[in-house]
Design a protein that fits this description.
The complex is a heterodimer of chains A (175) and B (81).
Chain A lengths: L11 E6 L4 H16 L3 E6 L32 H4 L7 H6 L3 H16 L4 H10 L3 E5 H7 L10 E4 L1 H8 L4 E4 L1
Parallel strand pairs in A: 1-2, 1-5, 2-3, 3-4
Helix pairs in contact in A: 1-5
Chain B lengths: L7 E7 L6 H11 L6 E6 L4 H12 L2 E7 L4 E6 L3
Parallel strand pairs in B: 1-2
Antiparallel strand pairs in B: 2-4, 3-4
């Protein structure tokens, strides 16, 4: 809606979301909603492991593996206890059953305590503000998704669709 | 210090919310307002100070004043278009 008063073309942001874990789901949705709030045009192209972020039942998990710098903090207990950085060796995380869901639960709780919006809320804000959410057709074919798996607001396209949009973008980011 | 008094028509409380929700909610509220009306927005995230300045610059709504009240930040925004 309301663009700048002097009919300048609005700025444009083109994002590629390629990773579907909880931690990697945040940056595209945060940037997209902030840009849309500034009256920018925004599109996110969801490809490879980013594609499930368009699913109706959104349930991203955090993978502690491959995140060696990830601080593990407890979202409960006295403040001193909450400030402790728990060392989490990869060998332990790789072998302990259920560790992923524990880490996901801890991160979600910590985010909630601190006042971070959920991925659902941010995605809804993006839909509200007319952010274009483009699902990658090729990824759908490879992983066996169908149109019905995704939210109604999603559109389906390929690399050419994204590039045609990004060609006129002021900011383009691969996430 | 004498602070300006504004004719506030709308108030939005973003206390406890982190980036990007204060700017997202500000935009949504501005959309419902008439041109010339003033919004008072309250936030507790220190990041809201630089973010609201950037937001106003991009959207060209007028940030009349930002107040740092120690842990609480108060913004007065005039809808310009």
């Amino acid at each position: 809606m309301a663009s700048a008063p002097d009919n300048d073309k609005p700025r444009r942001l083109a994002l590629i979301s390629s990773k579907g874990t909880l931690d990697w789901a945040y940056p595209p949705f945060i940037l997209a909603s902030a840009a849309a709030a500034m009256d920018w045009e925004v599109a996110i192209f969801f490809t490879f492991f980013g594609l499930p972020l368009l699913k109706k039942d959104l349930d991203p998990k955090v993978s502690p593996l491959g995140n060696p710098a990830m601080p593990m903090k407890m979202p409960f207990g006295p403040e001193g206890f909450q400030q402790i950085n728990w060392p989490m060796p990869n060998i332990l995380m790789a072998n302990m059953p259920g560790f992923e869901s524990v880490a996901t639960g801890l991160m979600k709780k910590m985010f909630k305590n601190k006042g971070v919006a959920t991925i659902d809320e941010l995605r809804e804000a993006c839909v509200d503000m007319d952010v274009r959410l483009i699902g990658c057709q090729m990824t759908m074919d490879v992983f066996g998704f169908s149109r019905e798996d995704f939210i109604d607001a999603a559109e389906i396209g390929g690399a050419a669709t994204f590039l045609a949009y990004a060609a006129d973008a002021d900011v383009s980011l691969f996430i | 210090m004498i602070m300006a008094e504004f004719n506030i028509k709308h108030t939005l409380d973003c206390s406890g919310l982190l980036c990007p929700m204060p700017v997202v909610k500000t935009k949504k509220t501005i959309q419902t307002m008439e041109i010339g009306e003033i919004l008072e927005m309250i936030a507790t995230d220190p990041g809201a100070m630089p973010d609201m300045e950037a937001w106003a610059k991009q959207t060209r709504h007028e940030l009349l004043e930002s107040r740092d009240e120690g842990g609480k930040y108060r913004f007065f925004i005039k809808k310009t278009h």
